[in-house]
Design a protein that fits this description.
Rossmann fold; Dna Ligase, domain 1; D-amino Acid Aminotransferase, Chain A, domain 1; 3 domains; five-stranded parallel beta sheet; five-stranded antiparallel beta sheet; 15 helices; binds adenosine monophosphate; binds glycine
Amino acid sequence: MKILLIGSGGREHALAWRLKQNPLVQLISAPGSSALATLGVCSPIAPDNIGALVAFAKREKPDLTIIGPELPLVLGLADLLRNEGLAVFGPSARAAQIEGSKVFAKDFMVRHNLPTASYAVFYDKEEAQQYLEGASYPLVLKADGLAQGKGVVICGKLESALKAVTELTKQQAGRRIIIEEYLAGEEISYFAFTDGHTIKPLPSAQDHKTIFDNDSGPNTGGMGAYSPAPLVNEHLNKTILETIIKPTVMGLATEGSPFSGLLYAGLMITLSGPKLLEFNARFGDPETQALMPLLKSDLAEILLAVAQNRLHETNIEWEKKTAATVVMSSAGYPGPYREGDLITGLDQARARENVFVFESGVEKRMEGTELNSYTKGGRVLSVTALGDDLSLAVKNAYEAVQDISFKGAHYRRDIGGKGLRQSLLYDTETN
Ligand code: AMP
Ligand code: GLY
């Protein structure tokens, strides 16, 4: 089976690694990365160069194209490839608006009675500022469009909110601004495969968004993850599926934009139940690096079944273990960061049982007879380890992290901490 994978990050490395467990899979990545080049052929086409990607796919005729990042989805790559008769894993541009436009997403949530924070939409800075003068805090400000993680600001008081409005409206994504009620609680990433009819949820996961321990410092693309999340017990899982995921899939279908691909609901588990923070129209990063080593079934078969509207035929099995993922980043990230530092210890970490290293910002250079790895990105790599429970998975992941070093390497020391506290809570409750 010939598969074209669009993307270059740690998420795509994890997907590619899992796809290649099937010996029949022949992988092409665009643009790919040095890690993806070890698993197949790479073609250096940027993910927003939609014309070139379509021309490339027409030439290569893959049996399946998997679109990793959000930008090509929002730009309509899936539609154009489907028009060429190609099988695609990823939603249409219309369905991807649930990620591409936060105003669309919030309005959709209200139309379909989905639980979410109350909000107001503003089309100009002055109007938003006026509203903020009379509001109570904390509040959340969001730019409407894709903003690469820079579009959401949580404001504790008026002064910071006024500053945030000025900053957000400077961005292309901030032509419309949402001001939203602040929700307190635990954040969960909930993923489901869907072909628009059948829905198959993945194990729950938790991301760690901020750069420093104890959820402090600026937000990043994600500094670690674990799966499953002890907070999402059977009852909560059912509530999320029935009150959020099913109505979302049905709502998109009835509005003429059926969703086919990976639906990602970013949820806050509040005292009054799960509430939607956002939708994404793709796999999460770094949650995918935690989830792929847990998947027992053939990923290529699942994604092809989604693309061909026959997800109901699949039987998806997961390891009864826990995965913990620790992201190692370059000094300075998420601000300007160092690059070009030698990375050592990758082979030692990979030699450990049930440990997986997925690369996102790594460049490989042939030096003499040696292939060396250097940092080339903010998030450099993620280390995933499996364990019989969360505490063992976390322990194994941190042991493997100790094998790897590069100048200025940063990682959070508290990945899984919240989940461990929740498991203790449940153990105490049930004992
Ligand atoms: P989003 O891109 O909408 O998920 O927002 C990015 C991050 O901001 C989320 O992962 C949350 O940590 C935080 N966030 C977004 N909306 C809210 C909200 N209404 N209340 C509290 N935190 C929020
Ligand atoms: N884990 C956050 C994201 O993929 O957007």
